[in-house]
Amino acid sequence: MATIYSYSNRDVTVNLTRKVRNINDEVAPIFWRITYNRKHKFLKTGFSFTLNEWDDFLNRNLLKHKDTKNTLDKYFDNVLKKAINTLVENGNFSFESLLMALNKGDLKSVNDAFKAKIKEMEKKHAVGGADVYKGTYKALLAFKNYKKLKNRDSKNIYLQDYKNRKRITTGNNIFKIDEVEITWDEITSQFLNDWETFLLETGSSISTVAIRMRTLRTLINNMGGDPYLTGSRYPFGLGNYVIQEDAPRETFIKLSDVWKMEEYSTENNAVRFAIDMFIFQFYGSGLNFKDLCLLRYENVENGEVKFTREKAIRRGKRIVHTKIPLLLPMINIINTWGNKDLNGYIFPFLNGIEPNKKNEAKIKQRVSELLGRININLKTVARELNLPSDLSTNFARHSYMTHMISEEYLNEIIIKQMVGHSTRDVTSKYNTLTPEKRREINSRLLNPTKDYSKTIDI
Q1: Structural domain ending residue among the three candidates 179, 202, 233
Q2: Exposed (0-12), middle (13-18) or buried (19+): which is 347, by Cβ within 10 Å?
Q3: With 0-12 CB in 10 A as exposed, 13-18 as middle and 19+ as buried, what is 282?
Q4: What value does the mean pLDDT take over residues 69-90?
Q5: Model confidence, pTM
Q6: Distance between CA atoms of 282 and 285, rounded to whole angstroms?
Q7: Among 280, 250, 253, which Cα is nearest to 385's?
């Protein structure tokens, strides 16, 4: 068996070989032969030669073999040798570990890994997660294009132009980002520090930078498979790049401020609607807005609405059913803005869209559009009532939890049960809330000076 592409690293050797199974075979397949501890593993190349063709391939530089040699060269240099070197240097080499590493051998670049991850998430209809990976990949490509520029003037122009147009997603003024290859060898701690500087200089917040970096780190770690970078090549952690975390901003308001919002008088229906959604979320145990949109009449029983948080389903956590008592102000809001047909959603925001994974993109778009309008109107209320200028629906959930911790002094497990967080503490099974207790807890939030007597039956 003649060989070519000979290579060795410690006890591991590689050769390209023509393997003849039967002496009468005219055409025989070409394999990568990996030898370790005197044992062999043969990996298919997809090519086959007659004996004369193989002799020509080894000894003559013929034009007809150019494409084949280029294909083998790229695989040999970019995939096979790199996988062997990484495993040998980390003391982890075995035929099994090599095959596991080569199962991702087609992901030769960071680009390939991002595209594969996005495709995987879209296949699962995990639209939000896919969007995060798309945004991170786009920001990474923008930085790589920036790095390619040779002089400072060009870099400054690129920085400013990208900063001005990076959020434009439609029309003729979209910032064009070329698809350039990013290799795994480029992802070093210095690369990440430079990328962070680029992101900050183009207007990203520290929180956004942290999201970008965590997303790339998750991609590198390749949960469920072998990491793309390990050992001394791993760029994160102490002594390497450390992800900055922004100081948490206050995203809550006092209970008295919630009451001010509730009492706010306006003839603007859009503003009234925004306030009512905020109030519904707050009195509804800090209900997430998307979960509010997904509430259905069929889940209402004995004065409570029972559902499973969309976030918990998406993350594949242990199923936790959240039960929210429908207080009188919440019923009044349903009476004002809810569907009159009691066979579907409580609110009409997703009418015509079935709540399944295939419709996740439609649901996300509809919720996002509605949320944008609500938050704009909440900022109008914030100016009038001297509340935080960035007031949004997120404040409803955080305000509920903050009040329950700092004013009602509820223990952590009780609060987690009320808001629908997973409770894995061994004592959680002894903190089971009755419907009466849930209603009593949330009723403490009601304004004692307000008349909530107006109600309907649902």
Answers
A1: 233
A2: buried
A3: buried
A4: 85
A5: 0.57
A6: 6
A7: 253
